[in-house]
Write the structure tokens for this entry.
Amino acid sequence: MGTTYHRRQFLHHAVFAVPSMIAMDAMAAQLYKDKGAGVNQDKKLGIALLGLGKYSEEQLAPALAETQHCKLTGIITGSPEKIKKWQQKYDIPEKNIYNYENFDSIKDNPDIDIVYVVVPNALHAQYTIMAANAGKHVICEKPMATSVADCQAMIAACKKAGKMLSIGYRLHFEPHHMAFMDFGKKKKFGKLNKITAVDSQEMEKGAWRLDRERSGGGPLMDLGIYCVQAAIYSAGTNPISVTAKEGEKTDLDRFQEVEQSIEFQLEFPNNVVANCQTSYADSGNLLRVDAEKGFYELQPAYAYDGIKGKTSQGDMGLKNVNQQALQMDDFARCILNKTQTRVPGDMGLRDVKILMAIYEAAKTGKKVNLDL
Ligand code: NAD
């Protein structure tokens, strides 16, 4: 689940504010300048959404209408009652509608170039592998899978099929987060001292996210992964070790199978530390970096919309964008230009390794060294 201060559906266009006190970082500027560069402007790749739940319905399908290089051409669903509505709303022909059983035959369908896997976490691996075997490129939602072995199998299947795999890390295409990546890289505020990341949100009883078999774990898998990601790209390097502590369960009814909350600390080279916190029984949405010459902060930090950024010098002056549209367009451009995606399967695998290490650290109470 993304985070959500606001799960609003209206879409913003990818424009930046008039030049602010903080010059837009080169990488972010390049992303927009290059939008479409090197590819046939008329070419649109067909995407089939696999799983028609909340994220597909409220975010991805509307975002697809905002893309330049993608088109919603198919759906794969286990819920026949949803088909008519989707067909009518998005003009999807009968021949591009699949269920989980006949989905293999998608291999013969030239309308579909990419399968976007948007089902509960534990199902990501099997459908990513099926899509790759059917000769399709794949975008898989986060977390990539519920085990390291599954991530490795997904990467291997895509490699064998000669197809590209990317993870739905939408914030890599978001200007505030891109600025954070750049600040860290260029040491704009001097040496980093401390990173703080919080992503917490109430989870209702009965949700599959509370069922370990389908989710692979609690808020860490769903929300804490944003803290892990943000800490890494703020630090500009991978962590070297982790310590963690599971929070007390105050609601045993809801949290029978997964953690209610967890705090963890990622240690980076040069004594940079990220203090992270995630919970399904609280709310919080923050990314902050304290550095030698000042601080920079996002709050809310991980939302689809309404991200607000400030630094010790003032407002960041960046506008919100349609993250998912930019993410999908970037992947389409990578396929068309045969270039590497910035959010590849290897990144998803790295993050799942870290999530597993956090659980191990919480269980043992010991520091776990990371070899990434
Ligand atoms: P959801 O519960 O709203 O939808 C899940 C879909 O999967 C439903 O259509 C459901 O019918 C289908 N499904 C198939 N098999 C199922 C099973 N065994 N149990 C339950 N549902 C099953 O969930 P969602 O919020 O759309 O999340 C789907 C995936 O997308 C998750 O992996 C989640 O982490 C990810 N996600 C990512 C973001 C993001 O910001 N990148 C945001 C939300 C969700």
User: Anything to note?
Assistant: The longest strand covers residues 192-200.
